[in-house]
Amino acid sequence: MSGAAASGAAAAAAAVAGAAAGWLCAPVTVAYRGPLTPRARTGVAVLTGAVLAALAVRLGGRADSVAFAYLGVVGVLLTVIDAGVRRLPDRLTLPSYLAGGALLAAAVPVTAHGALRFAHAVIGMAVLWAFYFVQHFLLPHAMGGGDVKLAGVLGLYLGWLGEAAWVTGVVAGFLFGGVYSVTWLLLGRAGRKDELPYGPFMLAGALTGILFGGWFAR
Length: 218
What we know:
Elements: H1 3-25, H2 30-33, H3 38-59, H4 65-85, H5 90-107, H6 114-138, H7 145-161, H8 163-186, H9 199-216
Helix pairs in contact: 1-3, 1-4, 3-4, 4-5, 4-9, 5-7, 6-7, 7-8, 7-9, 8-9
């Protein structure tokens, strides 16, 4: 099987597995968003499948792919919840520190420079958490506590992939969120003091860093 065919097969398998995981995990959102319609549940499944397929193309069969698949599933759930009710539940973010750290640590022995990568992951987590915490402390109406907790998780994953992915993911998140906020202000859909969901843009930025951070570093 050629490299392209193998990559396509891996992406297809990841899409199916992701869709199944999204379908099974979608009920988690009910506690926050209310009743889950079949259409909404299908949407969660399709989005999760698409995210995991993209990650499979980027990571292939690497040992850290399981860790990133976990982030993909949880990330979609957080996106759906935050977009609907402006909340990033501790029930999903806090366990992700332990789960993400454990899954990345498990990949250390079979990953080139694994120990160094893990050290970068821990540093990336701490720096991004601190960066968001300062923003939350200075502008609590603009940056919620849930965003701070999510930032640490994303910093962990982006740090594992390296400086280019970390910087790309952080900048992309701010860019996506800024464009959305300005657009809504210009359209009169939101005021300057209205709270807008920032988690989905943080997650979209992180996905951008994961998928394209290496490309920008070339």
